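S1.2 Input.
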Amino acid sequence: MTGHIPHGKTVYVMSDRELDDYTIHNSIIGELQKRGHRVVDAGDKAPASAQGSLVLHYLDDWNWDMCMYLAALNIRVLDGNTSEPVAIGTYRTP
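S1.3 Output.
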């Protein structure tokens, strides 16, 4: 991941599509909480006001090959005041 999520900030976590499986969603929330962040679960809706906070957008892509597996995950953390990226991370299976 490039960038850094500053400590002490509230982070709104939202999926960039309608939630159908909460596995990744809940994992992201749990990892942020373990690292001391205050987390607000925004589900798949943009927060009404994120002033002074961060908004974490993610998009997960799953494939099927004898079992379901995570094929790709894109994460963008945006400043709630400016909508500028604070951190960006990507994962793709080889």
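S1.4 Remarks. DSSP finds one helix and six strands in the chain.
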